[in-house]
Amino acid sequence: MPTSRLTEARQRLATPAVAAELAAGLAAREAFISPKYLYDALGSRLFEAICELPEYYPTRTEAAIVARYSAEIARAVGPGATLIDLGAGNCAKAAALFPLLHPAQYVAIDIAADFVRDAIARLQQRFPHIEMTALGLDFSSKLDLPDVVRTEKRLFFYPGSSIGNFTPDEARAFLQRLRAACDDDGGLLIGIDLVKDAATLDAAYDDDLGITAAFNLNILRHVNRLIGADFDVLQWEHRGFYNEGESRVEMHLEAMEDLSVSWHGGARDFSAGQRIHTENSYKYRQSLAVGLLEQSGFAATHVWTDPDNWFAFIHARAVPR
Ligand SMILES: C[S@@+](CC[C@H](N)C(=O)[O-])C[C@H]1O[C@@H](n2cnc3c(N)ncnc32)[C@H](O)[C@@H]1O
To answer: Does residue 248 surpass a pLDDT of 90?
Structure first.
């Protein structure tokens, strides 16, 4: 049995800090669960399935940009980087870059610790000459990199527009922490989803097969395991839509009937139609994306986009302190 399944079977409970964060979100007037809890072992696999969906354009659009501009990307970055993959998942995107970037070290970080460790174990066999480390940690509020991570030429890799899960203010603070975590020879390779028509965005986060719905609902089972809650996924429905005024896609879970939920140390009633907010995915205009990097201590050297201008893949260097 793979390590991740073993761990799920052991029904690992949350640390006190995680339990407190989840309880506070569930008890809030407008209930929420952070999107980082979408990724248990099953959630990580469901996200891989989402990336295969025709409606989910970000993964294939970003991959096409990288394939088309691979030589330019390789020149901009140069060899010998310490490639630090933030939210590495199955590490597939970084692996596609290895032959271009020839990193000296690859560091895969993910809150889904077992999933990323399994991925690194497989990847190390394919690329035995690259030094690799998997780190299971939550980077949303701080980034403490252990001594095993080389300090030379740190290149943070943050693809897939995961930056969109933060509000613009949170994103700026996060990027500032990345700048603080590298020397003047550091940089960033980031994928940022751009504003586009609402129908495309609606479909991307509410697909016909219901894979995104399963991904969203699975957060409830993860929360059940983490804090001993008794969510019944059959009582909840997925909602995913573009909120144009906020320039973000929102995912929610909506109660289909009046119901009660309890967890270790708390309980709450939800009436039919009441929602739990589970994810934001902010969409940027290209100029605002570049501005965000500049306000965070980085300077964009290249912005590569697709012919439809749906997605931006950006290399930025650290501005010397
Ligand atoms: C949208 S997926 C992207 C996966 C992959 N990088 C890609 O672009 O296809 C987000 C990944 O980040 C991880 N993640 C989300 N929030 C995190 C956090 N706060 N700390 C560490 N990893 C996180 C998830 O477990 C998941 O693997």
So the answer is: yes
